[in-house]
Amino acid sequence: MKLFTKTTLAVAGISMASMAFAADPLHNTTWQTFDEGKPKGVVKITESNGVLTGKLISTTSEKGKKHVGMTIISGLKADGGGKYSGGTITDPEKNKTYKLTANLSGSNLALKGHLGPFSRSQTWKKK
After folding, report:
1. 3-state SS assignment for residue 81
2. Which residues, at least 6 apart from 8, have a Cβ–Cβ distance to it below 8 Å?
3. In Å, how far from its chain's centre is CA 121?
4. The whole model's pTM is what?
5. Which SS3 state, helix, strand or coil, does residue 94 take?
6. Rounded to 5°, angle at Cα 70 from 41 and 93
7. What are the tens digits of pLDDT across the range 93-119?
8. What is the dihedral of CA 56, 61, 66, 68, to 10 degrees?
9. Which secondary structure element, helix H or strand E, spans residue 87, and what is its range?
């Protein structure tokens, strides 16, 4: 009887722990990017071991087509409450990489890239 109780408690504990490590809300999502208010590209975000990565999967720019398949977001981690930090984002056309923070609110993802004292913000829409 004691073995049954210990086994049941262990299984319940493992089940609860696995729920706590459920996939991030950004995992396996697709986002429309914008530049000066116009649709520019589509990025797919995936998560592995708590780290988010985003790849450019399509673009409306002729110049940008050579960058399709490129990882433009890397190392992004959830802080909780829809906030993310610790990652980088690359502007493939300018070949510049920025420190990245992001905020998820409904179907909007507000991103802010930082390079020294300069920053640039964009809001992406969930597809």
Report:
1. coil
2. none
3. 15
4. 0.80
5. coil
6. 60
7. 888 999 999 999 999 999 999 999 999
8. 20
9. strand 83-91
